[in-house]
Amino acid sequence: METSPSADYGYLRTLVFGLSQNVLDPSRDYLFETRLTKILRNQGMTHLEELVRHLKVRKNPVLERSIAEAMTINETSFFRDSRPFELLRTELLPKLIEARRHLRCLRFWSGACSTGQEAYSLGMLMFEHFPLLTGWNLKIEGTDICAEVVARAQAGCYHRIEMNRGLPARFLVRYFDHQGENWVVKPEVRKMTNFRQANLCGPALPFNRVEDRFDVIFLRNVMLYFSQETRKVLLAGIHRVLAPDGILFLGSSEQPADPSLWTSVLAGGTCYFRPRRPS
Ligand SMILES: C[S@@+](CC[C@H](N)C(=O)[O-])C[C@H]1O[C@@H](n2cnc3c(N)ncnc32)[C@H](O)[C@@H]1O
User: Fold this and answer.
1) What domains does the chain contain, in order, with CATH numbers?
2) Atom of ligand 1 nearest to the CA of 22
3) C-alpha span between 207 and 86 (Å, rounded)
4) Distances from the Cα of 195 to the Cαs of 147, 162, 198, 252, in angstroms?
5) Over its length of 279 residues, how does the chain's per-residue pLDDT go in tens digits?
6) 7 C-alpha to ligand 1 centroid (Å)
7) Which H or E run includes 270?
8) Residues with CB under 6 A from ligand 1
9) Which atom of ligand 1 lies at the shortest distance from residue 69's CA?
């Protein structure tokens, strides 16, 4: 894919960074051409140059936000990199359940949830393997900056191609209803979830009250788009909303920016992080 010699990609990269903190490498400027096609069409424009010119003369926060959202990478799948889910099943959840047996409440957060497969995978995992949680207050929060993927997560409706990626066959019939070419998450799993649009890098985290404490946070495959400074600030916030015995999973190529706040634990062929308390 080619780039246009006269488009001000630097302007677009700065705009995206300002709104989502996603750092876009100039070597991938060609992505603007494909990903902004729909926005150009809706604006009645044909070239990126026109869009940039328009934005430079007139502030348009709605349009700017939609550009930042269109540039996000939303790749995901059910039980993506199965090892964290397997470790939760075999080791981590049994211990957490024991620790919360009086409270009877467990809270999960899929930060950067994209179209929701990560959150629904957690729901199915609990349904399938922990029947003793019936009657517990279980909540799986999913947040993402991109309105379009959040709407898809809320709908819980997936094409059969998406279903073929990572989902054990028996889960398909047990936790989904078939509707034409699509499969829709059954209400018993959906009611555990709550999805909303939120920026992980806004002035405040989407959850920041003491009562928002989470037991398990998945923050996978998003920090790789952020600068080191952004990661540091984000993970300091995550540290505040994770229970003292809570668990953080990052993507397999991601590490906490400030290791002094986290203890990394290698287990089950994967790595997770426990919050360290200041001594
Ligand atoms: C590659 S997907 C990862 C989805 C899922 N966590 C997984 O590992 O399969 C990255 C997601 O991060 C979201 N994202 C990027 N920047 C964000 C930000 N500043 N705040 C919240 N979400 C963001 C994107 O919209 C995208 O859906």
Assistant:
1) 9-70 (no CATH), 83-275 (3.40.50.150)
2) 16
3) 27
4) 10, 19, 9, 24
5) 677 777 899 999 999 999 999 999 999 999 999 999 999 999 999 999 999 999 999 889 999 999 999 999 999 999 999 999 999 999 999 999 999 999 999 999 999 999 999 999 999 999 999 999 999 999 999 999 999 999 999 999 999 999 988 899 899 999 999 999 999 999 999 999 999 999 999 999 999 887 789 999 999 999 999 999 999 999 999 999 999 999 999 999 999 988 899 999 999 999 999 999 866
6) 27
7) strand 270-275
8) 20-22, 72-76, 80, 112, 114, 118, 144-146, 149, 199-201, 220-222, 225, 251
9) 25
Closest CA to ligand 1's atom 13: 112
Distance CA 179, CA 165 (A): 18
24: tokens are 């876009």
Q: Ligand 1 atom closest to Cα of 21?
A: 19
